[in-house]
Amino acid sequence: MSFVDSGLNFDDGSISTSGLKANSNKDLEDFLMLEREKAKMTAQMFEFNDICWDKCMTDKPGQRLDSKTETCIVNCVDRFIDISMFIANRLTQRTNGLD
Amino acid sequence: MDLGGVQLTNEKKAEVMAQVKQQIAIANLQETIQKMTEKCFNKCIPKPGTSLSGSEQKCVAMCMDRYMDSLNLVSKTYSHRIQQEAGRIQ
């Protein structure tokens, strides 16, 4: 879907199988691995949007996203990622401290 | 990944890739519709009446567009952040 691809540009554009050795499925395996990574990111994007929509869309939807809401969404995604990294780091430190 | 040692022809591989792409596109569309319905119902129909009013329909139409705006903005912000973090590691 175009909107998903518009922001997350992991697409290589075209699928080329002609130049590869006939006795290997590596191209297909690479393709599936990449698609799996893209699907994970798409799922993450939907989750972010879920959380940030509820936090930032406080008014009735208008003719366009106002700048206040836009700023809120951008900050919401960035701060959510900050928090998830912070928690991961802190837990890692604690676990290491127990050794 | 185990393809059971079966060697696929290039034609078959291209077919599988196209099918996977199509299935992912359908799944993404379904997810979008489901989330959009949930968000816009909550936003625009606070007290469900005996029928959808004109203003409720207008609100839902507007909400659908704003939902897509939001999804696009989240997507852009997320991919920008991934690139930033990747640059930090290197």
Short note summarizing the structure:
Chain A: Pfam families: zf-Tim10_DDP. Chain A is mainly alpha-helical and 99 residues long. Chain A is 69% helix and 0% strand.
What does this molecule look like?
The complex is a heterodimer of chains A (99) and B (90). Mean pLDDT of chain A is 82; it is low at 1-22. Helices cover 69% and strands 0% of the residues of chain A. Chain A has one domain (23-96): Helix Hairpins. By secondary structure, chain A is an all-alpha fold. Chain B is mainly alpha-helical and 90 residues long. Chain B contains 2 helices and no strands. In chain B, 16% of the residues are buried.
From the 3D structure, determine the CATH topology of chain A.
Helix Hairpins
Number of domains of chain A: 1
Mean pLDDT of chain A: 82
Poorly predicted runs of 5 or more residues of chain A: 1-22
* Morphology call of chain B: flat
Q: What oligomeric assembly is this protein in?
A: heterodimer
CATH overall fold name of chain B: Helix Hairpins
Q: What's the SSE pattern of chain B?
A: HH
CA distance, first residue to last residue of chain A:
48 Å
Task: Give the key terms.
heterodimer; A: 99 residues; mainly alpha; Helix Hairpins; 3 helices; 69% helix; flat; B: 90 residues; Tim10-like_dom_sf (chain A); protein transport (chain A)
List the helices and strands and how they pair.
The complex is a heterodimer of chains A (99) and B (90).
Chain A: H1 2-7, H2 26-56, H3 67-97
Helix pairs in contact in A: 2-3
Chain B: H1 10-44, H2 54-89
Helix pairs in contact in B: 1-2
